[in-house]
TrEMBL record:
The keyword Transferase applies. Belongs to the UDP-glycosyltransferase family. It comes from the Eukaryota. It comes from Delphinium grandiflorum. SUPFAM superfamilies: UDP-Glycosyltransferase/glycogen phosphorylase. Gene3D superfamilies: Glycogen Phosphorylase B. One of its GO terms (molecular function) is quercetin 7-O-glucosyltransferase activity. This is UDP-glucose dependent p-hydroxybenzoic acid glucosyltransferase.
């Protein structure tokens, strides 16, 4: 292995907001950039890099293709990782902005001094200050938008005041945007709604801050693919900066499996899936952040047991400081589930979705999961909670036709009964429309494969980006 200075010409520094839903696409992109011959440094907070190291064991530099991947960390100002105030985004995000700005500047400067100056910084949502740092230091900056083009379009039109949105006086107003189906008031990203997600208002500010700072960004990369988002993309093509869909990022062929899990994945669930009949298992996961109401946990449990199909359920222990409680597995399930289901705290989701035993996925519709679903050919039962998940659920069901909606959002608990859970599972796996859901799912899987393979739209878009980076001053 040569030194970083001798082997590589262009150095891309990727910086991830400290959350699994951001780490995964950023790290996947870093691997692909390394495989195209660049030096790609994946960076995030000390806490995140420590967690990745603990659960995967690998944060050492690694040669991939003609390039190299490295991990680095900087401080977010929280020395005590267990400080419960960290989980309050209204406290965490402003502090991260202040401390992160300075410590990230130090990180970038360290590279110039050590002979590997940064040619390009790649940022992602919730940290608009990264493009300020790039501008201050005179380094070109790109953004990896880790959600869909249709959600980007909603925020874009909101930020530029190009359409009318629900207000306090008209909270039920639907939204009409070019290239998108009519969105009911509970189908726009919930942070933009005047009533929903009041505890996450700070996320609206940082996302809109990102749109304000787009003038400091030369390119927006999106973890999506053109074939999926043709209509959503059309009105954005004339907007600046240029938008390049380069996904599904996890589909890119990798020589080495470098993962960014923040928790150890229960590999034994693959063996458990091997023991189940083809197309029989209900996979259930609500991603890395959402904490369900306790009543919802109980209803899902009853629904899973009533429908009689085996199930694999990822239940992460809720954070100690979780204000609303909930998120716990009912005690009685532990006895009753024996033999019928497997509950784990974290699983290798990509491998689970690719497993032939999986019949359907009850999902919160985070965009990473949505991309993995559309690339795996698995029908879904959508149970979105907040943010972009509610819009993703609308598209996955009504536009892409890969399943049904159990919930419209976390505010929609009135439809959440165990009977409805069981009915939705039956509807997507055995009902009259089950075949159509599966057919659509397989159609999107093929489109995703085509986009990611050599010569495909996403493959070419990433190549164009790499050429742009290679043309930058070192
Ligand atoms: C967050 C937001 O909630 C989401 O709406 C936004 O689009 C991205 O950031 P998160 O809630 O964690 O993400 O969901 P998701 O986007 O689906 O990302 C979760 C990732 O963790 C996926 O890549 C999934 O494969 C992975 N995962 C999840 C595992 O590897 N194992 C698990 O057990 C569960």
């Amino acid at each position: 292995m040569g030194s970083d200075q001798t082997l590589h010409h262009h150095h891309v520094l990727l910086v991830s907001f400290p959350s699994q839903g951001h780490v995964n696409p950023l790290l996947r992109l870093a691997k692909h950039l390394a495989s195209k011959g660049l030096l790609a440094t994946f960076s995030s907070t000390h806490h995140i890099i420590h967690k990745i190291h603990k659960s995967t064991g690998h944060v050492q530099p690694i040669d991939i293709g003609g390039g190299r991947l490295r991990f680095e960390s900087f401080t977010d100002g929280w020395e005590d990782h267990d400080d419960p105030r960290r989980s309050d985004l209204n406290v965490y995000i402003p502090q991260f902005q202040t401390v992160g700005h300075d410590s990230f500047v130090q990180l970038v400067k360290k590279h110039s001094e050590s002979g590997t100056p940064v040619s390009c910084i790649i940022s992602n949502p919730f940290i608009p200050w990264v493009s300020d740092v790039a501008a201050e230091l005179g380094i070109p900056c790109a953004l990896l938008w880790v959600q869909s083009c249709f959600v980007y379009s909603v925020y874009y039109h909101y930020f530029h005041n190009l359409a009318s949105f629900p207000t306090v006086d008209q909270p039920n107003k639907s939204v009409e945007l070019p290239g998108l189906p009519t969105l009911e008031s509970d189908e726009i990203p919930s942070f933009l709604h005047p009533v929903y997600s009041p505890d996450k208002r700070v996320l609206k500010d940082v996302i809109l801050g990102q749109f304000k700072n787009l003038e400091k960004t030369f390119c927006v990369l999106v973890d999506s693919f053109e074939e999926l988002e043709r209509e959503s993309l059309k009105p954005l093509l004339s907007s600046a900066p240029i938008i390049r869909p380069i996904g599904p990022l996890y589909k890119w062929k990798e020589e080495k499996d470098v993962r960014g899990d923040m928790w150890s994945a229960a590999e034994e669930c693959i063996e458990w899936l091997d023991s189940k009949p083809v197309g029989s298992v209900v996979y259930v996961s609500f991603g890395s952040v959402a904490v369900l109401e306790q009543q919802s946990m109980e209803e899902i449990t009853r629904g899973l047991l009533n429908c009689g199909q085996p199930f694999l359920w990822v239940v992460r222990p809720p954070p100690k400081e979780s204000s609303k409680g909930g998120g716990r597995l009912p005690d009685w399930l532990v006895q009753q589930a024996d033999g019928k289901g497997l509950v784990v705290q974290w699983c290798p989701q990509e491998r689970v979705l690719a497993h032939p035993s999986v019949a359907c996925f009850i999902t919160h519709c985070g965009w990473n999961s949505s991309m993995e679903i559309l690339s795996s050919g698995v029908p879904i039962v959508a149970a979105p909670q907040w943010g972009d998940q509610v819009t993703n659920a609308k598209f996955l069901t009504d536009v892409y036709g890969v399943g049904v909606r159990l919930l419209r959002s976390e505010n929609d608990l009135n439809t959440f009964s165990s009977e409805r859970v069981a009915n939705c599972i039956v509807e997507v796996t055995k009902g009259p429309k089950a075949e159509e859901f599966k057919k659509n799912a397989l159609k999107w899987k093929k489109a995703a494969d085509d986009a990611a393979r050599e010569g495909g739209t996403s493959y070419n878009n990433l190549d164009k980006f790499v050429m742009e980076v290679q043309a930058l001053k070192q």
